[in-house]
């Protein structure tokens, strides 16, 4: 019995001496607190993404005229007693230009638009095409009354063309990466084409045809990208294809009137867009919010 008592007492002494050591170990153990997670607010949590913007653009374009034609008229019969056997009665009709060419030119434009959401926006743009030079040529075998059956009529024709292009456009923004947002779009509207007087330098004489002006139907397809310069200012660059329908080109003076068959235009464009209001464009950076976690509790005896 005494043996058993002595063993129990020894065990109690050992346990009592180990307890302060274990407590000291627990108190001195380093506490590691992990960094709080960083959570980025998605665009949808920001609120209204839409906003108004204005834009200005500079353009360099090359237009291809899809052809031109003019009306001819038969020569008047020789009056009785004129005594000229070479005078004849020609047959009138519609003749096409042999060649047509429009030089490259610049344009400037402005517009106002609205960003409906993160991926869709619309705007109304007005562009002024500076005057571009036109050069064409015509030829005739004489059977339409231009020259004579034995003297073909050949001419070089020169004029200038300018335009106002008004388009309502819609764009799809494809996403934003490091401030760069590619997009595609389309527009529909009208173009006011103004032709200056056509100078007709022919081997049978010189003539001037008064130029015409008219509104025509127009549409455009475009693709490009915008880049954030500041939180409100964006650089926009891209390509636009536009098509303008045909209309009257010049008035009658002997031959005429004349008509162009419209234009296909390839444009390289660059400009700036200024967005109004906070969070109204892709330059907005979602706010980074760090949530602080409370430290783990330390339990002591």
TrEMBL record:
Signal sequence extent: 1-23
Name of the protein described by the UniProt record: Opacity protein-like surface antigen
Domain of life: Bacteria
Keywords: Signal
Domain Outer membrane protein beta-barrel, chain residue ranges per copy: 89-276
InterPro entries: Beta-barrel_OMP, OMP/PagP_B-barrel
Keyword field contains Signal: yes
């Amino acid at each position: 019995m005494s043996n058993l008592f002595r063993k129990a007492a020894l065990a109690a002494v050992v346990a009592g001496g180990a307890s302060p050591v274990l407590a000291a170990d627990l108190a001195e153990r380093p506490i590691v607190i992990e960094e709080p997670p960083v959570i980025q607010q998605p665009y949808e949590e920001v609120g209204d993404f839409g906003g108004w913007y204005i834009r200005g653009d500079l353009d360099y374009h090359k237009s291809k005229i899809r052809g031109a034609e003019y009306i001819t008229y038969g020569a008047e019969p020789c009056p009785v007693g004129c005594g000229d056997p070479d005078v004849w009665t020609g047959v009138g009709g519609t003749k096409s230009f042999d060649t047509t060419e429009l030089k490259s030119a610049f344009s400037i434009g402005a517009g106002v638009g609205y960003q409906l959401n993160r991926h869709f926006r619309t705007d109304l743009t007005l562009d002024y095409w500076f005057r571009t030079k036109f050069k064409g040529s015509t030829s005739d075998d004489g059977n339409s009354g231009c020259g004579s059956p034995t003297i073909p009529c050949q001419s070089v024709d020169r004029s200038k063309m300018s335009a106002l292009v008004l388009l309502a456009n819609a764009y799809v923004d494809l996403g934003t990466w490091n401030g760069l947002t590619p997009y595609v779009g389309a527009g529909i509207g009208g173009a006011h084409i103004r032709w200056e007087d056509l100078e007709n330098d022919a081997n049978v004489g010189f003539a001037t045809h008064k130029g015409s002006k008219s509104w025509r139907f127009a549409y455009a397809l475009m693709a490009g990208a915008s880049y954030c310069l500041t939180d409100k200012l964006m650089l926009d660059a891209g390509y636009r294809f536009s098509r303008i329908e045909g209309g009257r080109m010049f008035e009658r003076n002997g031959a005429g009137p004349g008509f162009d068959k419209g234009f296909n235009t390839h444009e390289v464009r660059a400009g700036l867009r200024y967005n109004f209001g906070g969070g109204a464009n892709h330059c907005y950076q979602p706010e980074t919010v760090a949530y602080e976690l409370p430290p783990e509790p330390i339990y002591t005896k």
